[in-house]
UniProtKB/TrEMBL annotation, chain A:
This is Phenylalanine--tRNA ligase beta subunit. The keyword Magnesium applies. The gene is pheT. Residues 749-842 form the FDX-ACB domain. Residues 437-516 form the B5 domain. One of its GO terms (cellular component) is phenylalanine-tRNA ligase complex. Binds 2 magnesium ions per tetramer. The keyword Cytoplasm applies. Its EC number is 6.1.1.20. GO terms for biological process: phenylalanyl-tRNA aminoacylation. InterPro entries: aa-tRNA-synth_II/BPL/LPL (IPR045864), B3/B4_tRNA-bd (IPR005146), DNA-bd_dom_put_sf (IPR009061), Fdx_antiC-bd (IPR005121), Fdx_antiC-bd_sf (IPR036690), NA-bd_OB-fold (IPR012340), Phe-tRNA-ligase_IIc_bsu (IPR045060), Phe-tRNA-ligase_IIc_bsu_bact (IPR004532). One of its GO terms (molecular function) is tRNA binding. Its cofactor is Mg(2+). Mg(2+) binds at D490, D500, E503, E504.
Automatic annotation (TrEMBL), chain B:
The lineage of its organism: Bacteria, Bacillati, Chloroflexota, Anaerolineae, Anaerolineales. GO terms for cellular component: cytoplasm. Keywords: Aminoacyl-tRNA synthetase, ATP-binding, Cytoplasm, Ligase, Magnesium, Metal-binding, Nucleotide-binding, Protein biosynthesis. Its EC number is 6.1.1.20. Residues 122-326 form the Aminoacyl-transfer RNA synthetases class-II family profile domain. This is Phenylalanine--tRNA ligase alpha subunit. The keyword Cell division does not apply. The keyword Aminoacyl-tRNA synthetase applies. Its cofactor is Mg(2+). Binds 2 magnesium ions per tetramer. GO terms for biological process: phenylalanyl-tRNA aminoacylation. Pfam families: Phe_tRNA-synt_N, tRNA-synt_2d.
Amino acid sequence: MKVPLSWLKDFVEIDLSLPELAYRLTMAGLEVEEIRLVGLPMPEGAHEFKIEGLSWDPDKIVVAQIEEVMPHPNADRLVLCRLNDGRETLTVLTGAPNLFPYKGQGPLPRPLKVAYAREGARIYDGHQPGFVLTTLKRAKIRGIESFSMVCSEKELGISEEHEGIIILDEEAPVGMPLVDYMGDAVLEIAILPNMIRNASILGVARELAALTGKPLRQPPLPPFERGASIEGRAAIQITDPELNPRFVLGLIEGVTPRPSPYWVQRRLRLAGMRPINSVVDATNYVMLMLGEPLHAFDYDVLTARAGGKPPTIITRTAREGERLTTLDGVERVLEPYMILVTDTAGPLSLAGIMGGLESEVTENTHNVLLEGATWNPVNVRRTASALRLSSEAAYRFVRGVHPALAPEAVRVCLAYMAAWSGGRVAEGLVDAYPKPQVDPEVTLSEAEVQRWLGISLRAEEVADLLRRLEFTCRVEGETVVARVPPHRLDIGEGVIGKADLIEEIARLYGYDRLPETLPADPLPWQRNQPLLEAEEALRDVLAGLGLQEVVTYRLTSPEREARWLAPAEGEYLPPDYVRLANPIAPERSVMRRSLLAAVLEVAERNARLTERLAFFEIGPIFLPLAGQDLPEEPLRLALVLSGMRHLPAWDRAEPPLADFFDLKGILEGMAEALHVPQWRIEPASHPGLHPGKCAALYSGERELGYLGELHPLVKARYDFGPVPVLVAELDATALLSLVPERFEVQGVPVYPPVIEDIAVVVDEAVPAAQVEAVIRQAGGKLLTRVRLFDVFRGEQIGVGKKSLAYNLTYQAPDHTLTDAEAAQIRQKIIRRLEQTLGARLRG
Amino acid sequence: MSEIPEINELDALQTRALEELKMVSDEAALQAWRVAHLGRNAPLMQVFSRLGQLPKELRPQVGQRANQVKQALEAALEERAAALRAEALHRALESERLDVTLPGRRPEQGRLHPTTRTLRRIVRIFAEMGFQVYRSREVESDAYNFELLNMPAHHPARDLWDTFYTTIPGVLLRTHTSPGQIHVMRERAPEPVRVILPGMCYRYEQISARSEIQFNQVEVLAVGRNITFSDLKGTLNTFARRLFGEQARTRLRPSYFPFTEPSAEMDVECFVCGGKGCTVCKGSGWLEILGCGMVHPTVLQNGGYDPQVFSGFAAGMGLERITMLLHRIEDIRYFWANDVRFLNQF
Ligand SMILES: [Zn+2]
């Protein structure tokens, strides 16, 4: 809402500086987003608001009068003006088309009042796009010296208008600094959805009066002529009072639509509306002033549609297939729920949103039937969004306009119409009000104020605060009974009404004056959160193991995920997804089913940026459940590892590439750090992974996920280059649920160990894990550590064989092992290896 | 000069030996000197062996002198040897000197995502005030996301959120973490509630430097028999001071949310310019950090708490926005792009 300061001052005295004013309004919930100066000087000192615009130099920009408009000797499109600026008479050059009609008429009987800028004035350049400051300098244009100018609105920063110069109202005093005559500032106020009552000059003024304690005043109506009564000239039929609680009509006859007085046009422009003619302008002016949208019909068109009889306005919902061409020239097909203003001949306007083209007021309108009505907000919202129409009227009706405003606004508007367009205002109104608004009465006790706000106010103080906002209050002991004033619909009943009042009290009392306390209320019992704690521990463990955490989009597309989810070979049928009805783009149209697919995308994007890729993410995937509306959202953990094992350094130019065992080591480290019970990693297969480089992580018999190297055919779908890409995806929900809340550790051995190495030769096909398992089983409790330190293949040991070298530690908890004991264990291990695996000891 | 020739000889021996020791500059020369002056055949040793042949009355005097010379030479030897060792050590150390300006060798280091880091700070601050994390689903029903939060169908406040709907009627991507308020209240009523609700939310918007289609929100919710607006103010100011620094100045401005009343917006004084006005705060000197208010009676009711008896406060902030302010990040798209050049800086 753009609020011109001068207009606000019609309703309330303001003795605050602009920044103070903006601060008071902002702290009361009327956030001033910007202040635009339109003539007034820039406030001094520091402030907390964005202030822009143009200040008019009182010495250089003044009211002047053009006394004669003369042709330019050398240019058809320029004229010379004899102008009096209060000091002297001089000749000023201009190309303003709105002066051409006066050209060559000799001295004007009624001189034109204009805004005159002297040499050196700072104004905006009227010929450049946007607002560019310029200083008026002496120049010769077509042989005539020019050093000053009569200004357009754009040059003074009033609006974008620069076709013609401003022609001020006749009473403007010649020689007066323009800033004193009409210097202004516009407050751009963000209106909160529950404060639509303040989307008007009166509304803002009322808040300001409440904040400053100054009285709210009603500017007097202009004098106007009255005509015969409206009785019998128009009728109203409301078919659904729920949709149309009130409808008021007023009539004015004998108007002449013409340009509105300049001050009206200026105010409309400052408020962001375009002046049309004095009849339409009056409806917009009153809407901006009071907050009630009004609509003017050409009365003669309505009469003609009624076959020469007085028209009957009927409000009803649309009929199947009905159409209406709105003011913007678009033919709209109406739906049966849409509420319309119609007459006996058909639709006239989209109620509360936009008028129809046929009955609109034109330059030739003589008699005007003026509508002020109240509409159901939900219906207006539904219609406006279905037709993708927005308007100042719809903006207000959607948020709720109090029915009491309608007759008042119609009366005021008719007075302005008569004052600006001539004509006689018919006596009385036609007022149909089948569903009167009952303004709620809300009771609020001192204890409730204390309970909600934490401050103690006496009932009388509460009542005083509310009275400032025109609530009617009576105090009964420690309770205030407040009647909501008849201009707002945002205060509810019962306990909701209490909360609504509490907000008003807090606002007026001042949020900044409320004390700061910490809750004295008892804390709830703290709950155990093992899963959340384990999840954070998992993040720390993985970062500690050298992986970068990422967070990716949960929105993706089946095609993006197919890069990973489609098997390396064979058919792929995309799974069922949570799909968006209104995706922002096709590539963000479903909720992901694979976390790894997203982390692979991150790795791919970073592949050219770093030598070592190591990423993990913990996050949900979204799995639709058959027969249920809401999907399952299990947590997954995804890891991607690729590129160099270490970052290169100045003495380590070509580190080895990461392979399967780097990833496996990370998962082993993770399982160990989290104390996952009975974890193991076993060979496995996965349709997207290299068949020989794939394994699964288990805890006991529970499979937690897989790890491995991307299948070459899958890797070829990405832009990774010739390096192996290692991936893992685990069920994080399952993993985290296995993390024990406590675990036990072994004592540090007191007696010295016996350490020795053995190398065994086995068939290539025997997995290392099996060899180790046999060693451990045979070694029993006294074998405390088994470490594979070498794997060797070569001619010496034969084709199809491999040698595995182990470092073994034997240790007893209660005595120093003798050589004989150690030899015995060793013999047992070797014998078992020979028996079960056909192994032989390597010399 | 002594009258005893043996004494004079010993003096001369000592003088000569010490002179020669001055010339010794390495371990080999030192050994040679020791053999020459303290070895079995050294002149000094011969003085000892000749002691018996001296007249009886001279023996003590010469013997004593010979011992003195021996001790002096041994002491000098030890001193010289130590000096030579020190010299050798210093030479060796000098020869091992590195160019310490060469870069260090970094262990492979992992890092947490910036949103995780900020979230942990926020969660820790509220945890100390008794708030525990509560998480709820991201694909939600219209009822939990809107209706139960005091936004029935066609409520104009729904326009505040541009919503992603799924193809299943009544199912949407949550636009805020507030549905969690209803979940947690229904689970715990009539117990008091102190929770912090972090999580991913979604909005139908064009992706730009300032807006994203998914973003993390962090809400806090307190419900009890005696929770006041002043408690809200105190709790949030404590939070702001702990996150932004002891000097952080804040202000509460009235605002509107359908699920709170009174509602407020909290601003913190711009810590980039100190409140003077800059591009980060768009000239206002204040940074908007969170929305908050007293839980609306309808929401309390929907959560299973009688609003005549219970009250509560709620606050919500954007995790990425807070992170952007803390680290002066100028483009919100960095968060989900996961470019290592961005992530490496945390
Ligand atoms: Zn700043």
